[in-house]
Amino acid sequence: MSDQNGHQPQDDEAQSDESFEDMLGALEAVVGELEEGNLSLSATLETFEQGMNLARRCQVLLAQAELRITQIETESDAASEPRQPTDLFNVPF
Fold it and tell me: Which has the higher per-residue pLDDT, 16 or 52?
């Protein structure tokens, strides 16, 4: 079923199956098409919209990867911090 603009709804599961590299490649192809400048106005708008959707999905994956890296670093830092016993001789009076 298409919406009022004639676009097919996108299946979220199909989107999640695509790798970042696949989506980035598709985005690069879209940019190439737009840079050629051989599209009609209607085709340009549709292609631009596809590119923006791909860019948004890539940004989401990058944000998720950044969050995971931060979590790994935090876990690694916590595991590697040496535990210091309290120094009773340096307690201020």
Answer: 52
